[in-house]
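Recap quiz, item 2
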Amino acid sequence: MDRQDDVLSLVLFSGTDDKLNAAAVLTVGAAAMARKVNVFLQYWALDAFRADRVLKDHGVAPEAGEWGHELVQRHATQHWSELFRQAKEIGEVGLHACSLSMEMFGITKDDLDPLVDDVEGVAAFIAAADGPVTFI
Amino acid sequence: MTLATHVDRIIDARGMPCPGPLMALIGAIRESVVGDVVEVLSTDEGSKTDIPAWVRKARHELVEVTPEDGFARFVVKKAR
């Protein structure tokens, strides 16, 4: 009847606060609507999930400019990490760190925020995706 | 025919942006028992589509949606 039971598969590449916030809103919305969500963290998004960096200012996407940066800062109410936490609370949401990016940064699971469930290879993520993958 | 709905809990989510009011409602419904009625006040435009969609999906009952001056009032009954 619908695709409501499909997995929402998100690849987070960008580590700016605006993109992470947009991804967190999608995740929480999908979790609320009983969709399973699988998030694969690569590159700068993974870097933003380091335990000691989560709450730092990660800037905004280049197209935002100075005006956009101020706008996002002024409007931000809930931090994206809090939205991901809420999503995990209400739904089946997995956050997986890309093993290649982990290796590139020279970090281990212990360096990451507890929101991140595990370290995974790309094939495992794709195997669980079972449908389209959204890249942010 | 209708009596004023008995409301067990009111959440004033006015000023919270999307998806704040929906999340507040979900939290309140989770803490409630079947039959409880929760009312949410929201200024977020997204709530007008999100709250009915979630209530349908989660199979609760949307008792009432009332537009007020600058916000909307959603009354939801926990059905299961």
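The domain at 7-135 of chain A is CATH 3.40.1260.10 (Hypothetical Protein Ychn; Chain: A,).
The mean pLDDT of chain A is 93.
End of item.
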